[in-house]
Amino acid sequence: MKKLFCSGLFAALVSMAPAAAQAAPLYHLVQTVPLGGGIKWDYLHFDAASNRVYISHGTELTVVSAGTGGVIGHVTGLSGSHGVAIDTASGFGFADSSKTRTISVFSLKTLAVSKTIPALEDADGMVFDRPSNQVFTVGGDANALLAVDATHDTALSTIPLGGSPESQVSDQAGSIYVNINDKNELVRISTKTDAITARWPLPGCEGPVGLAIDTVNHVLFSSCANAVMAVVNGDTGAILATLPIGKGTDSADFDPARKLAFSSNRDGTLSVISEVSPTKFVTLPAVQTAPGARTLAVDETSGRIFLVTAKVVSAGPPRHPGGAPDYAFAPGSLKLLVFAPNS
User: Fold this and answer.
1) 54 and 194 share one domain
2) Which residue spans traverse the membrane (predicted)?
3) Domain of 125, in residue numbers
């Protein structure tokens, strides 16, 4: 059924003209999980090995079973939680605290913190690179990337980036890619030498934020503050496409099973980009989610998409000209939204 869904419905949507815009929604809401706690949330991480979703917010990580939607527990004692990285093989996870400039190492079994590691100023997104056994954490205000030895829980090197980094992804084959938000650039870094190997401009992309990767075809998807997604060749830096997305993007992800890239947006939409081929990309009809649902994670097996938002109490001026409103949220109203494909 999944293969039929991919090759049938999505291929039809791509090939059909205006009628595609009237097609049934690609995804539907199947579950809402109350989370409570701090409402200043950031990245989500789906771990396929444990079938868990990790949600960073406020002073904690909330861990949710992707199968049942039940809250498994919390990693506590954080301060300005933004990112999380999971090393299933070792049984440990890593969570950053931007206010204290630290990384907390915690047990995946008990969720208890066993060690803290100094991090960079404005510690933000994180990624675990399995081949090099390193955790990489961006420091937005530090204009740098920190590499941490995941075995010994020690900082290895600080990599200057020449600008303010946002999201990062690993190709799990020797390279890390990082969006440079204030320079409108994409940087490639070797995980063997922890040195920059390429720096590419992103013409037409203002303020790159979210970043996703198709590791098979080496295609990168950079979501931008001016409501476009730049599709980039990960070997050459060539721009393959620039496609419209929703307003207020803060995260991107890729579903390799269905060849779909996503941007989650503050305006309450989920933008969907179909990778028809490694050189052809088409925007599919957006999915209506909820205002403020700006970060996401994808389960490539089930195709489910996880987003976080909270109850809106007011809407202020956009953070960027022409962007989505800057919402204020009710305390304690944080919730996880689970969307499933309409297969």
Assistant:
1) yes
2) none
3) 48-201
